[in-house]
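Hey, can you fold this one?
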Amino acid sequence: MDAQSRGRADDVDPADQWVLNPQTGNYELRLDQPAAQPGPSVATPSGARAPGPRSAPEGRRAETPGRDVPPQRSRRSGGRGTGHSGDAPGGGPPPAAGRRKRRPEKKSGKKKVLIWTGGVLGFALVAGSVGVYMAYDKLNSNLNTVDVKGAGTGGFSKDKAVNILVIGTDKRTGKGNEKYGDRNSPGHADTTILFHVSKDRTNATALSIPRDLITDIPECETSADGGKTIPGNRGVRFNESLGQQGRDPGCTMRTVKELTGLTVDHFMMADFNAVKTMTTAVGGVEVCLDKDINDVDSKLDLPKGTHVLEGEQALAFVRTRHSVGHGGDLSRIEIQQQFLSSMIRKMKSGDTLTSPAKLWDLAEAATKALTVDTGIGSINKLKDLALELAKVNPKNITFLTVPVVDNTDKATVLLNESQARPLFSMIQNDISLTEVEQKEKDAKKRQQGLLKGARADAADIRVKIFNGSDTQGVALATLNWLQNQQGVPKSSNEGNAPQKLPKTTLEYAPNQADQARKLADLMGLPAAAMKQGTADAEGLEAMTLTLGSDFKGAGVPITGPAKAPAGVKQVEADKKVCAK
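Sure. Predicted structure:
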């Protein structure tokens, strides 16, 4: 018998008001206040008997007229209830022994969860076909917000790429965290991940920024003391962009833009408590070790093999560095990326998605640990963001680190310009680092039809370049790239095209097909861009390349997955990797 049946309706936990509707396979909110007595019927206000509660139609929110009712969890002796299909309808007792339970039908689809985890940060919101109602006021009051004074865009659009800065601060706030030392520090940007979600929501890139990277921190305005401007610093550690001299997350956002050229839309930040509470809420996160680890600094002591970690152990795992890899911060970043990938897989798993109690604990733990900018500083706004971000399949989430080289002091690192700049350009131009379904099809097309056949030498390509886009200077930039980097000297800049084009096109004659294929290879042109004429070209006649609105920059493929620069390590979130 649940808490309401024992006369304790005010002492129920908010998650177990949800029950599984066997007709739809979805969890739905109970619509009634169950009576104390058992039985399939429910007492009405007039004392008449009425049938048990009906489930709301699939895809609609279950409501109680006149008021909002938070999801509730029953309290049973011997443990916490989960509000699953074992509860009798209406909150009454379970069926009598020997009575056959109705077998739930196969679920029509998984509920979706937004996963936002970064070092010490995770945020989960429920989304999907079941109209989930959560205790709005309770979760909303958990959130902390910061006005970043124009550092972000103040919002996000469903038809544009989204950049979220996920910050893990090493500030020792929260119960039990003072033992990690440096208790009076205002904190640093200890773990920072720039999470870029593509415009079409098919893929995402999670770019870790080393805390010891030497960079420039620009001047920034904060909301402290009624508005305070903090001067910038040149040639300092990236982690000083937060906490030091009163800098807030808006200063970190500006530093990231200065470093990468990417405008950050929003930030999410949490301290050590987040990783402890979030991993506990999901029942632990599986990690794999290739060797025994005993790190006295992080207090991680685990034998080789597979383990499920939560709470203090999970925090110790993401903090360890001396016992893995090369023993530095870059090795710690790798182990964090492995952990976050595993956490994403756990959050996407049926074990989490089909448990309303676990999802509720997850959302409550996350919002208590979370600080966000005012642009997404409410549950409704986070929910809207969640619906967009939850569309990305884990296999298309790529984790990688800003390319760096050792500094002479061996304690800090410097930007590897030759690797980092092309990588930043790919993210700026919304180029996927993973294969996705449509791009796999495009890649196959590139091996068929017009793109199949002999290739000319780059030096033999003759092409006239027109700018048919709204971006100034792209024809000249492409000319310089072709001539100076690709060995195509017989190319020319013809200025603006007679009219704007949405798609890039390459027009060529049948006897120029080998040149066209080679140029398509160099520029990453899709088969759809190839426009072959009917008559052969005469003499030294050149092909015509018109750059359309889809052109993303010289050297950046228009379609198909991009490859990270040589030497840049990357791992997809669906891959299980063991710490070494």
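DSSP finds twelve helices and 33 strands in the chain. Let me know if you want another pass with a different chain boundary.
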